[in-house]
TrEMBL record, chain A:
<protein>
    <submittedName>
        <fullName>YciI family protein</fullName>
    </submittedName>
</protein>
<comment type="similarity">
    <text>Belongs to the YciI family.</text>
</comment>
<dbReference type="Pfam" id="PF03795">
    <property type="entry name" value="YCII"/>
</dbReference>
<dbReference type="InterPro" id="IPR011008">
    <property type="entry name" value="Dimeric_a/b-barrel"/>
</dbReference>
<feature type="domain" description="YCII-related">
    <location>
        <begin position="1"/>
        <end position="116"/>
    </location>
</feature>
<dbReference type="InterPro" id="IPR005545">
    <property type="entry name" value="YCII"/>
</dbReference>
TrEMBL record, chain B:
<keyword id="KW-0805">Transcription regulation</keyword>
<dbReference type="GO" id="GO:0006950">
    <property type="term" value="P:response to stress"/>
</dbReference>
<comment type="similarity">
    <text>Belongs to the sigma-70 factor family. ECF subfamily.</text>
</comment>
<dbReference type="InterPro" id="IPR000838">
    <property type="entry name" value="RNA_pol_sigma70_ECF_CS"/>
</dbReference>
<dbReference type="GO" id="GO:0016987">
    <property type="term" value="F:sigma factor activity"/>
</dbReference>
<dbReference type="GO" id="GO:0003677">
    <property type="term" value="F:DNA binding"/>
</dbReference>
<keyword id="KW-0731">Sigma factor</keyword>
<feature type="domain" description="RNA polymerase sigma factor 70 region 4 type 2">
    <location>
        <begin position="110"/>
        <end position="160"/>
    </location>
</feature>
<dbReference type="InterPro" id="IPR013324">
    <property type="entry name" value="RNA_pol_sigma_r3/r4-like"/>
</dbReference>
């Protein structure tokens, strides 16, 4: 099964990061990523830019989607990066999440990535049709 | 309240290779290292529900196992100098930072895939110690009873001890054949999951995913070995088709009929990246690299007709020269049938049949049946397909072949 580790940072986390040399943060994160890679569990990972000038928001509440520059600040919790890992259990995903070198003000939200089998009810419609056809072709009921 | 068993299993899953290889390096004895690690796991099961999971669980397990080693030696009547020194060193060595110890993990992989072991023992031991799976998980994946897995592991450890296999990386002159053996174990594990030879299920994705994980781990350990990356690429490409390969009723869907939109395109991208890494080493493509390149042709083709069949034929020719085998030749025949028509392909298949290759396997008659059907030789085709259905050991596969014969 696959899990997405969603990193969120509050203003508190940002402030505490500013106390630490950037090089140190990069090195710790690098070592963490390396441990995921070396264990063969890492499928994808990206960090997200937090400069307001790079980002925007598309709101679908109105009839036509509205593009604005934010606001993100209201939540005080920016989605700042993610990993997708493949593990054999929820507990294993939790173990990996615990090892992430984050500090106060940061959270990791861990979500299972859906797979084909989660949509069995939809696949079924197609498959049932196919199966019925196969049965008819083969002289079964 | 934590679920101790599941938490300990999760830690073992992540740390087993590092724990056992660290202990084996310290003691020089792989079997002892594995026993000590297991004893530490038992301690963890008793203690963690009370004390909580330690911050660095892997280091905790290693420290406990080490302590057991020291106590064991101290209890010995014949406490010779060697053991005294070793006990002292172990005692003094700090647990310190958990370091990356690729070298020891690599030695571990070479041990669990050692040529003195049977294939079955290699697979079980590698899944247990390197993959960090529990005996129960391995039994479920391999479709054998738990005691069978236990016996295989116990026996494997005895065999390694009897053969006095040192906990060392192989000599340079043995390196490539030993690496080949390791890759072979990983791929065998994968193919057992991909085209299950036993049981009524076509694909056992857990087992295949496990092999993929081992493959990625291995490629990281030996990044300068193109075949390690080639094997990862091959497995990624093949696994990318899992979702499209089995119909809802459990029957197999062949490549021709698969809904390509259901292929896992993120996985295909990972496969292509791994193949690029293999090529990037600059030593050309060997067996796994060539097979991966063939799989890549399929993975990027929009349909069976819009597949670069000429290139696939070339790749099979190269593969056949490097690693001649009737299965490769049969696959080349299929590619030739797509590139230049069934008549040319039938000549290759007839030659194989004449040579008596693949006797007793359903593969040859099933391909021959397909080719004959395309040539309009319906009666012969039906007979070949039914022969293939009789020979197929996988029930699902047999059903597909019978259905094909009936549809002619």
């Amino acid at each position: 099964m696959k899990y997405m580790l969603i990193m969120r940072a509050t203003d508190e986390a940002r402030e505490s990061y500013e106390q630490v040399p950037f090089k140190e943060i990069i090195e710790k994160m690098g070592a963490y990523n390396e441990s995921l890679t070396k264990a063969g569990v890492l499928l994808a990972a990206e960090g997200l830019a937090d400069a307001m000038t790079d980002n925007f928001l598309v709101d679908f509440s109105a009839e036509a989607p509205i593009v604005t520059d934010g606001p993100y600040g209201e939540t005080h919790e920016l989605f700042s990066g993610f990993w997708i890992i493949q593990t054999s259990s929820k507990e294993e995903a939790a173990e990996w999440a615990r090892r992430c070198p984050l500090g106060p003000g940061s959270t990791l939200e861990v979500r299972r990535v859906t797979e084909m089998s989660d949509f069995a009810e939809f696949a079924e419609t197609d498959a049932l049709v196919n199966e019925a056809a196969w049965r008819a072709e083969n002289g079964q009921e | 309240m934590i679920d101790a068993r599941r938490t300990v299993d999760a830690v073992w899953r992540i740390e087993s290779a590092r724990i056992v290889s660290t202990l084996a390096k310290m003691t020089g004895d792989f079997g002892l290292a594995e026993d000590l690690a297991q004893e530490a796991v038992v301690d963890a099961l008793a203690q963690w529900p009370v004390s909580g999971v330690p911050q660095n669980a892997g280091a905790w397990l290693t420290a406990v196992a080490k302590r057991k080693a020291i106590d064991g030696w101290r209890r010995r009547q014949r406490l010779d100098e060697r053991y005294r020194a070793m006990a002292h060193d172990l005692d003094e060595a700090g647990d310190g930072e958990w370091q990356l110890i690729d070298d020891s993990v690599l030695r571990l992989v070479f041990i669990t895939c050692h040529p003195v072991l049977s294939r079955e023992a290699q697979v079980a031991l590698t899944l247990r110690v390197v993959g960090g799976l529990t005996t129960e998980e391995i039994a479920r994946m391999l479709l054998v009873p738990v005691p069978t897995v236990q016996q295989r592991i116990v026996r494997a450890k005895k065999t390694l001890a009897a053969a006095q296999v040192p906990f060392e990386a192989p000599d340079p002159n043995e390196w490539s054949s030993r690496l080949g053996a390791v890759l072979g174990v990983v791929y065998l594990t994968f193919t057992e999951g991909y085209a299950a030879t036993s049981g009524d299920r076509w694909i056992r994705p857990e087992l295949a995913n496990e092999a993929l994980r081992l493959g990625r781990l291995l490629a990281e350990l030996v990044p300068r070995e193109p075949e390690a990356h080639g094997l990862v690429a091959l497995m990624e490409f093949q696994a990318s088709r899992f979702a499209a390969r089995v119909a809802h009723d459990g029957t197999a869907i062949l490549l021709t009929d698969q809904d390509r939109s259901r292929w896992d395109h993120a996985q295909i991208r990972r496969g292509r990246a791994a193949l690029l890494r293999a090529d990037g080493v600059g030593r050309g493509r060997a067996s796994y690299g060539l097979q991966a390149a063939i799989a890549e042709c399929h993975a990027v083709a929009p349909s069976i007709d819009d597949t670069y069949w000429d290139r696939i034929v070339l790749l099979y020719e190269a593969l056949g020269r490097l690693a001649p085998s009737p299965v490769v030749e049969l696959n080349r025949a299929v590619a030739v049938s797509m590139a230049t028509g069934p008549a040319n392909a039938l000549r290759i298949v007839d030659q194989l049949a004449f040579d008596g290759a693949l006797r007793g396997s359903h593969l040859l008659p099933s391909v021959r049946g397909e080719l004959l059907a395309r040539l309009g030789r319906t009666e012969e085709a039906r007979s070949e397909l039914l022969t293939a259905a009789r020979l197929a050991t996988n029930e699902r596969e047999s059903a597909v072949l019978r259905a094909k014969a009936a549809a002619l």
